[in-house]
Description:
Number of helices: 6
Radius of gyration: 16 Å
Helix content: 40-55%
Order of helices and strands: EHEHHEHEHHE
Oligomer: single chain
Amino acid sequence: MDRPLVVYDDENTELLEEAGEIAAGVDAQLIVLSLMTADEFREAREALDVVAKEEHTAYDDSVVIDAAKKQARETAGELFDDDVDYRIVGARIGDGESEADRILEVADDNNVDHVFITGQKRSPTGKAVFGDRVQSIILNFDGPVTSLLG
């Protein structure tokens, strides 16, 4: 393992902490992915546009992604000691794009060789009806996937 990726989950940092420990143990650079849904991005973008109008300025989309990355960076800074080499990457899921597809795209763009992801326990019917990002990543990622089901 040279470059693992962990999908940041602000509600469950257990996997982030474990991925950091493993990355430090094998001297790998951990990629921490802060992912925004299209709706989250739109809401943040609208709020930023209100602020920009008040300030008589303009902000581009990178400011929204940077805000999402900031939260992941702060959490990683609290969890990791100096032994963990990590880099924060921000991305948004485009309209019509699945979360799994975006995660796989970021993994490919960053030459990742292991993925850490949280998931939800679902029945086989739930997976068939709603899809399952963990299952999709396991089936489509060319490398090991570690999942923490919550």
